[in-house]
Write a structure and sequence with these properties.
elongated, alpha/beta, 4-stranded antiparallel β-sheet
């Protein structure tokens, strides 16, 4: 038997009959037959509608009430039943809240790979762009690594999945990149990026050496900039939009579906990638009450 307080969904809302978005998570080692049996049991609960089934049925997104879901309290096959309104999908800062400004953490200069010279922070001395290598790339010793192995090798054999605001596939920095997959989890459209953040992230990773940008800062050379690993196999999922109109269930559905899509590219799950790195940039300032309405 499991105490109600052990499950996040029941700790504060067990006595309420208000319809809310929930996530039911089933343990990974539960057999497939039991997973389906649990799903069927959830579907038959009063006032409950399953909206999405993810990760082979191990995560169920649904609309229900705390009182209806309390029937699951004794099922030891569950990890949790979570009220998604109590688990913000982003790092939300309440508007108009007084907060002390964070102090910048002093970091030690990074020693370049294969050398002994320390690369000092850009504000500590005059710093100039070295060809296509920005300060960030040099801080990571990308220029040293690239000189040793070549940009045509950097990232080879590794899949990278960016879950962000999309991708501007027509950007001149992306000529010749290994775009293996793109999926829009919001509108089922071809590659777009209304916010441009996903494009920025992709460029930081895969921008090839020698491909320039049309509108570039004056300090950037004619070749634009180069990414940290231009030869990775790139997958892009669009999950972030320019507004906050998505409901909690829609947001979590897109978010979890995109992770499922990324991991499905692994050879161990029927895909072609031996290794997969996922990048998610989540954060911002939102009105909590309007976001959950």
């Amino acid at each position: 038997s499991r105490d109600l307080s052990e499950m996040p969904a029941f700790s504060r809302h067990a006595s309420q009959n208000i319809m809310k978005p929930y996530a039911v998570t089933i343990k990974r080692d539960v057999p497939a037959a039991d997973v389906e049996a649990i799903a069927q049991r959830v579907r038959e609960l009063p006032s409950t509608t399953v909206r999405k089934s993810l990760f082979g049925g191990h995560i169920l997104l649904l609309s229900s009430t705390g009182s209806a879901l309390s029937e699951l309290q004794q099922d030891s096959r569950l990890v949790s039943v979570t009220d998604l309104t109590e688990m913000p999908p982003m790092d939300i800062t309440e508007p108009n809240r007084d907060t002390e400004p964070k102090k910048l953490r002093q970091t030690q200069p990074m020693v370049a790979l294969g050398g002994s010279a320390a690369l000092l922070p850009p504000w500590s001395k005059p710093w100039k762009l070295s060809g296509e290598y920005t300060y960030g790339m040099e801080a990571l010793s990308a220029d040293v690594v690239h000189s040793k192995i070549g940009t045509d090798v950097a990232g080879q054999g590794v899949g990278v999945c960016i879950l962000d605001s999309g991708l501007d596939i027509n950007h001149p920095e992306f000529k010749g990149i290994n775009l293996k997959g793109y999926l829009d989890f919001l509108e089922s459209r071809s590659p777009i990026d209304p916010i441009s953040h996903g494009t920025h992230v992709a460029g930081t990773i895969v921008a090839p050496l020698g491909e320039g940008a049309i509108n570039r800062p004056v300090e950037v050379g004619s070749g634009g900039v180069v990414g940290i690993a231009p030869n990775v196999n790139l997958y892009v999922g669009r999950i972030l939009r320019a507004d906050t109109e998505a409901s909690v269930l829609d947001w979590w559905g897109s978010f979890l579906s995109s992770i499922d899509w990324c991991t499905n590219q692994l050879a161990s799950r029927g895909g072609s990638e031996k290794h997969m790195v996922m990048n998610l940039s989540l954060g911002g300032i939102y009105d909590r009450s309007s976001f959950f309405d």
